[in-house]
Specification:
Length: 133
């Protein structure tokens, strides 16, 4: 089975050991509660709509959430909440591009490629760590 196009090394290009080490360090800091934002060179591959959604996700502050409808309106697609959900599902950079911060309009946890327990874990992690910043 070949990797999804968004993760294909021929599309993404090679990464240096330094870039990989930096990504690992920043992810470690995030999971330790010591990092609220990432500073990594991202080159996601997707449709114009997916790229717009993924960019919008990076604007959701650490420890906060937005609804699928909010993100849809922010990218100029009112009524496009389901399309935002589909774009989230194709996000190749989960955690770094924080699709876990997108929730249902009623505040419910819905949709997450890593499973709802992981989504809850990430949101709880940010709520606990947010008190430190």
């Amino acid at each position: 089975m070949s990797p999804p196009a968004a993760l294909d090394p021929e599309v993404l290009g090679e990464r240096s050991d330094e870039e990989i080490a930096d990504a690992a360090r920043q992810l470690g800091e995030y999971f330790a509660g010591d990092r609220a934002t990432f500073d990594l060179p991202l080159r996601p591959v997707g449709s114009d709509f997916e790229l717009a959604v993924w960019h919008q996700l990076t604007l959701i502050p650490y420890g906060e959430t937005r609804s699928y409808g909010y993100v849809a309106r922010a990218v100029g697609e009112p009524g496009g909440a389901q399309a935002v959900g589909a774009a989230n599902g194709r996000n190749p950079l989960a955690v770094v591009v924080p699709c876990h911060r997108v929730i249902g309009a009623d505040g419910s946890l819905i949709g997450f490629g890593g499973g709802l327990p992981r989504k809850r874990f990430l949101l709880d992690l940010e709520q606990r760590a947010d008190r430190l910043f």
